[in-house]
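User: Please predict structures.

Assistant: First:
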Amino acid sequence: MKAPQMPRFKFQLSRQVKVMIMVGMVFVSIGFVEKRQADRVCNRIVIQVDNQYENFFIDESDVMALMTEGGKDFIVGSAYKNIDLRHLEQRIEEHRFIQNAEVFHDPKGNLLVRAKQSRPIARLVRSHAPDAYVSDLGQILPVSERYTARVLLISGSLVDSLITRDLSSYRRGRRFFEFLEYINNDPFWSAQIAQIDIEPDGEMNFYTTVSKQLVEFGTVENYQDKFQRLHIFYKRILPQKGWNEYERVSLKFKGQIVCE
């Protein structure tokens, strides 16, 4: 006589339940990985300083000093759960020559640091006080004893008022910064203009390397049109009249090129 068979029950999970289980497993895995990363210890610090424009205001040792507050904080050997990466970035970015910083760690336990330097595009020259740089973001930067950037020089009595705050922070400063950016981004004018002198009323004068004429540029208003007229002067007028014919060219009057 055969033994009675036990009834069989089939459990069929719905698709929604399967998805929920899979999602839960993913979250558990992520939590496990995050815990492992948090418990991981910093093995070493790898610092990369961006020198795209060949500026050498800071180096890796400067960044290390900023991160560790001059060696007071010990990062190597510390668990990542005790290291505030954003706080380290803020420490580095306090340096005026650092535009931004990124701090993160890899699976091997290395702390990776990327620091991008500020880029000067002009230097404000003063005779009785320290000079300063204008960055490509319109910031006023101090000069450095370590490195001197070869940039456009700005001199004259108006420089003292320009140096008090970032050019990007007020209307007149932004307009002048746009003018500097235009020169810096134009290969021809950036090569031709080495120094600009600003008078008390904001009018500017300069010489170019291509000729000996004094260029009376006027204010920054309509600067693009003025540069177009100056280009006409060099390409059309001087080749016909002679490169030594004039001592002065004025662009101050709208639509005119006044040569003397």
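Second:
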Amino acid sequence: MRPGGFAMHTTGFEDALQTNTFTLQWHITQSCELNCRHCYDRSERKEVGLEEGRNLLDQLYNFCTRYHVQGQVTFTGGNPILHPQFEKLYRAAHERGFRIALLANPTRKSILEKLKAIQMPEFYQISLEGLEEHNDYIRGRGHFQRSLQFLDLLKDLDIYSMVMLTLTRANVNQVLPLAEILRDRVDSFTFNRLAMVGEGASLASVEPKDYRNFLADYRKAAEKNPVMRLKDNLFNLLHYQQELPLMSGCTGYGCGAAFNFVSVLPDGQVHACRKFPSPIGDLNEQDLLTIYESDLAVKYRKGASSCFQCRIRPLCGGCPAVSYGFNKDPLHEIDPYCFLERQ
């Protein structure tokens, strides 16, 4: 059922505006053994303590009870596995009945076996940035081969595996070849556009004028490669222009920022989306429910006012993080890659 507090401003697409799951993307530590060139946050923040972590999970439980949704905790960081209390926090999420997922770096088999013994994760997502030479330039020497070996390990352990790529001008021509390499090694492959925030501001994004053609090429390749997923909301623009059925968008509901997910940082700050500065509250001052129902959170749920009259807004909304990286106002200005506006 649709939770009342998740109300959107649009009409139509009623099925698309219903959600049964709410995800807490939980950055429990900033610690990371990598030094990626496009990292959006290298700031130092205190790590989540065990008791404050349990308290937040209790708040999430109450939130999900209030809105009749299934809760999911997606552990991330930094590298969440480096948190000294990670296993206890993982177990605490399990004890409260949440689904659990990981956005992390490759790790040891023994750690995966411990996590499986507590609860099978919904998925384990790692990142690759292109073919071996380019990936290792971004993420560090040897990372590509270690990642392929780790994907094989996930497969052996029957853990659903995902690979995410951050799309840039430098790797746009490597996406399809990489997808072929991953065809038999991963369950899901997709990409996010570069948000030119933090270290990412030093990299070049794909030219907006070229993006529609890239989406068309990717979609065509995906017809023959079952691991390739169509995540970007702007795939729906392509479908709309060609009078094809629309998809469910980035999170299943277009942009889900402050709607069916929020991001919580190690120091208790809550953001609508972690890919750009979008603070909506502080858990040191308010509880999760109060933050979610705040006027600021509602603004992020509504998204860019320039999209309000768009027929497919409920299944799109663009990407506010990308807009922010282009020095645009994500609450008012349209995604700079929107090609409906260019017709």
